[in-house]
Amino acid sequence: MSNSAASRFSWGKLALHAFFVLLSLCFILPFVLVLSISFTSEEALSLHGYQFFPREFSLYAYEILFKVPETILRSYGITILVTIVGTFLGLLLTALTAYAISRRDYMFRGVTTLYIFFTMLFSGGLVPFYILVSNYLNLKDTIWAMILPALLSPFYIMIMKGFLEQLPTEINESAKIDGAGEWRTFLTIVMPLSLPALTTIGLFISFGYWNDWWLPLLFIDNPNLFSLQQLLYKIMNTITFLSNNPQMLQAGINLQQFPSLSVRMAMVVISAGPMLLVFPFFQRYFVSGITVGSLKG
Q1: How many CB atoms lie within 10 A of CB 209?
Q2: What per-residue confidence (pLDDT) applies to 294?
Q3: Beta carbons within 8 Å of 201's beta carbon, 6+ residues apart
Q4: Which of 22, 119, 187, 189 has the smallest number of CB atoms closer than 10 Å to its CB?
Q5: What distance, in Å, lies between the first and last C-alpha atoms of the chain?
Q6: Exposed, middle or buried: residue 293 (CB in 10 Å: 0-12, 13-18, 19+)?
Q7: How far apart are alpha carbons 45 and 57 in whole angstroms?
Q8: Which CATH number is associated with domain 63-289?
Q9: Dihedral sign, CA of 9, 13, 15, 19?
Q10: In sequence order, what are the beta bridge partners of 40?
Q11: 200 burial via Cβ count (<10 Å: 0-12, 13-18, 19+)
């Protein structure tokens, strides 16, 4: 009987591992295909279609994108700066707001929570938002136009609130007895205990800033302030236009090899690559904090 149970357990465990291996392949193989296409010549793509191994290896797509390398590098710098500053300030304000409304001794806890939740359901609209940022805050064509509008998310605040409510209230009381003020309690006790939640939400915020192209498209016209996503978006539109209008192609670009397909995949690799390298360093905290706020909200 015990041998039969052990056998069933082994087969079940093997099936579970096989399922997750297949699931992992479903996530990995598309990116491998994208990487392969980006290194494939345009002629090979037209003749043989998409393949996991390049039929004709070519760097022409990357040569087109890095024709003026300082433009890409400047956009990388802008995106990195926006991501770092936006993630730090957004995470700090999210934690502060969630900490306040999670405290049971806060008199206006219910009203403030309702106010924050209300903004998840309704917004002022795109036109008032544009007028506010451009005319009243005067942020157009400034780097803050890519940071401040996305600084706080009510969804992340509610998730952080749910996590902080699970912390024992005795921690705050013992800190007060020891003479710690609110700021010291928050910075030295609450924040370290909230590291899994902070890391998880911080990753979501950083991904949002890194992949954002909507705010730059609305508020940035200065080419020197183009973010990486905005620059790649404009490059893609330009390539689409040139591909559909071959008579507009400048001299020196071979139309037969013009990478209208592979360059799109190269853009994906350029934009997504850095975040794929950063994520594994935070994976341990991300896994432990993926269910933050799931018990209470």
Answers
A1: 24
A2: 46
A3: 91, 94, 156, 159, 160, 289, 292
A4: 22
A5: 45
A6: buried
A7: 11
A8: 1.10.3720.10
A9: positive
A10: 57
A11: buried
User: What's the pLDDT at 244?
Assistant: 63
Residue 219, amino acid: F
Which single residue is written with the structure tokens 């591909």? 243
Q: Among all chains, which residue has been given the structure tokens 């749910």?
A: 162
Domain spans, the chain: 63-289
pTM, two decimals, is 0.76
Concatenating the DSSP letter of every residue in the chain gives -HHHHHHHHHHHHHHHHHHHHHHHHHHHHHHHHHHHHHTB-HHHHHHH---SS-SSB--HHHHHHTSSHHHHHHHHHHHHHHHHHHHHHHHHHHHHHHHHHH-TT-TTHHHHHHHHHHHHH----HHHHHHIIIIIS--TTSGGGGTGGGS--HHHHHHHHHHHTTS-THHHHHHHHTT--HHHHIIIIIHHHTHHHHHHHHHHHHHHHHH--HHHHHH---GGG--HHHHHHHHHHHHHHHHH-GGGPPTT--GGG--TTHHHHHHHHHHHHHHHHHGGGGHHHHHHHTTTTSS--
Q: How would you write the pLDDT of the chain (297 residues) with one tens digit per residue?
A: 455 555 555 777 888 888 888 988 888 888 888 888 888 877 777 777 778 888 778 787 787 777 777 888 888 889 999 999 999 999 999 999 998 888 887 888 888 888 888 888 887 788 888 998 888 889 998 999 999 998 988 999 988 888 888 877 777 777 777 777 788 888 888 888 888 888 888 888 988 898 888 899 889 888 888 888 888 888 777 766 666 665 555 545 555 556 667 777 887 788 776 777 776 666 665 555 545 544 444
Q: Which two tokens stand for residue 211?
A: 């992949």
Q: Distance (Å, rounded) from C-alpha 268 to C-alpha 256?
A: 23
